Amino acid sequence: MTLYLQNARIIDPEAGTETVGNVILDGGVIAAIGQASAPAGAEVIDCDGKCLAPGIVDIGVKVCEPGERHKESFRSAGLAAAAGGVTTMVTRPDTTPAIDTPELLEFVTRRAAEVSPVRIRHMAALTKGREGREMVEVGFMLDAGAVAFTDCDNVVTSTKVASRCFTYARSLGALVIGHPQDPGLSAGAAVTNGKFASLRGLPGVHPMAERMGFDRDMALVEMTGVRYHADQITSARTLPALEQAKRNGLDVTAGVSIHHLTLNELDVGDYRTFFKVTPPLRSEDDRLAMVEAVASGLIDIISSMHTPQDEESKRLPFEEAASGAVALETFLPAAMRLYHAGAMDLPTLFRAMSLNPAKRLGLPQGRMAEGAPADLVLFDPDAPFLLDRFTLRSKSKNTPFDGQRMEGRVLATFVGGQQVFRAGE
């Protein structure tokens, strides 16, 4: 089917432009941009001046298959992603059991392809069981389709084991995704150190724990030459080290979660566990520093870090509650907070949400260009709504934005030129 999307406000993160025009989707790709009339037989969709951008490529989504399908399945995550304008999910291996063998990777790949309306690519564990002792079979996992290797927030404590993993990954050209955090300092922490943590009587971790973990990883990157991506940079103290690593020519990129760009440590309020995430929410100064780092391009990627938790895991005292928040459907409206605040324009946002993650993983998505995959999101950046967590398509409802006024509604999502979501359906 040929689609003719007319009168769209086209967001091009590669060129950094916003233009009004028409887009033709045919054969699963963007066939033309700017053509004045619809091809014969094409289905015409009037975008009514709303924004048309490359679909979001979301690195770091947790789907709880295998082991915890009651929290999130590939089907429910896929539906949530489509409703949120996420056209490619890159899933984490911190499942039960961890994705650490080619057989498990092939299983989740098959399951995802059967039930998800959006594209799903998978990361694999860096060490067996994410236990930091024995490296996975990196070559076989690459052959099975792994796009990156990570132990997620289980930091490999042995520098010798980490160096072996990095060296082997380098020899095969594999991307390693690290979680910059000193595990000794951050163990048992629920919030960021400071006056607020003290007043609430909650165990905290100093932001320097992130800097220390990042410094160790950068030494290993310098030693091994591995391709490295830091999943979440959340502290201003880490930014000079990141800038130095890039200046030194290391193959390093960095990400930040949408929650660390739009929330701060005070949002925890009276022990609201939906605001408990990993790393913990930081100070307002840190948040503003992260926003500036994304706007300048120092931080390359924004991700949802979608982490479903059931009610039983969250309805506990703050210190005991599970960390994480769902974010597939709230990713875009939360990002619109940055746009409406004047912190960055839409091409800059989609550079970090679509173009850069696709480029880092070697995927063809994330571009608004002729010949690029027709993975697109049509959205109204100004549409207001009150978020009700029970309307979310994720099985788990642990969003920190419940009851909040938000702006930005996804109107339609296209994957491979096929419409997989339409608002109101």
Automatic annotation (TrEMBL):
Pfam families xrefs: Amidohydro_3, DHOase
Enzyme class: hydrolase
SUPFAM superfamilies for the chain: Composite domain of metallo-dependent hydrolases, Metallo-dependent hydrolases
Record's GO cellular component terms: cytoplasm
Gene3D superfamilies: Metal-dependent hydrolases (3.20.20.140), Urease, subunit C, domain 1 (2.30.40.10)
GO molecular function terms attached to this record: allantoinase activity; dihydroorotase activity; metal ion binding
EC number per UniProt: 3.5.2.3
Record GO biological process: purine nucleobase catabolic process; pyrimidine nucleotide biosynthetic process
Amidohydrolase domain mapped to chain residues: 343-421
InterPro entries, A to Z: Amidohydro_3 (IPR013108), DHOase (IPR004722), DHOase/Allantoinase_Hydrolase (IPR050138), DHOase_cat (IPR024403), Metal-dep_hydrolase_composite (IPR011059), Metal_Hydrolase (IPR032466)
Superkingdom per UniProt: Bacteria
Residues annotated as domain Dihydroorotase catalytic: 49-235
CDD domains: DHOase_IIa
Signal peptide: none
Keywords from the UniProt entry: Hydrolase, Pyrimidine biosynthesis, Zinc
Record protein name field: Dihydroorotase
Higher taxonomy: Bacteria, Pseudomonadati, Pseudomonadota, Alphaproteobacteria, Rhodobacterales
